[in-house]
Amino acid sequence: MDTKKKIKIAIAVLSILLAISVVAVAVRFVYDYVTATNPIAELVPDNIIENDADLSDTDLESDNDLEGDDSDSEEESDNSGENVTGESVEGEAPGASEAGDPSEAIPTDGENAEKEAEVLYLYDRNPGDNTPFNVTNMFPGDIETKYFLVRVVHKGDIILRFHAEVRPGYEKLAEVLKCRVVLPESGDILYDGLMRDMPESLNVDLQTDSEVTSEVYYEITAYLETSVGNEYMQTELVADFTWWVEETDNLGPAHTSDGLEYTVWIIVAAASLIIIIILAARLRKGESFDER
Question: Is the pTM of this model over 0.85?
Answer without folding.
Answer: no
